[in-house]
């Protein structure tokens, strides 16, 4: 009797699965319902996004991001600058500095530079703490090595900048 019930249960499961496949109309993995890989799907999505971004003449579609050079500011990548012991780094309006090593002070003929990390304005001659984000509010402001500095000065810069030697000559990057 138990064997009969077991065979009946197996038979009903088999019949139910056949009916389900026929009701849906496709078999998983068949030509009508293919199995795709993640790499194919990623490639497919990337291609369609690229096509949408590069669609000419459509004012409402997003345009591909522009890659500005280091002197245009905005979303430019960070540049790593090694500042010489007699050089001064001046930023354009909106330029960001992060001093990674060495001792530097703020240079400005006016108010100074914004230290966003500490939430303070740094006046001319004030020392800059390492790894603090500085933003230049207007041109003519920047940083220079402290007189007591004895190590290399590395600064990460985003935006437009100019490096001047002590004699006023411009350093070409």
Automatic annotation (TrEMBL):
<protein>
    <submittedName>
        <fullName>Uncharacterized protein</fullName>
    </submittedName>
</protein>
<feature type="compositionally biased region" description="Polar residues">
    <location>
        <begin position="57"/>
        <end position="74"/>
    </location>
</feature>
<keyword id="KW-0732">Signal</keyword>
<feature type="region of interest" description="Disordered">
    <location>
        <begin position="53"/>
        <end position="77"/>
    </location>
</feature>
<feature type="signal peptide">
    <location>
        <begin position="1"/>
        <end position="23"/>
    </location>
</feature>
């Amino acid at each position: 009797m138990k064997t009969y019930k077991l065979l009946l249960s197996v038979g009903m499961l088999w019949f139910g699965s056949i009916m389900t496949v026929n009701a849906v109309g496709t078999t998983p993995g068949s030509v009508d319902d293919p199995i795709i890989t993640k790499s194919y799907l990623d490639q497919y999505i990337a291609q369609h996004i690229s096509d949408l971004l590069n669609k000419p003449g459509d004012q409402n579609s997003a345009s591909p991001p522009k890659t500005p050079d280091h002197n245009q500011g905005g979303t430019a990548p960070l540049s790593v600058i090694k500042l010489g012991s007699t050089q001064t780094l001046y930023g354009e309006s909106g330029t960001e500095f992060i001093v990674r090593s060495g001792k530097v002070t703020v240079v400005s003929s006016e108010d100074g530079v914004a230290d966003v990390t500490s939430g303070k304005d740094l006046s001319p001659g004030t020392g800059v703490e390492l790894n603090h984000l500085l933003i230049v509010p207007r041109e003519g402001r920047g940083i220079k090595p402290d007189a007591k500095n004895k190590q290399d000065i590395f600064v990460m810069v985003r935006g437009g900048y100019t490096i001047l030697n002590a004699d006023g000559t411009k350093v070409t990057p």
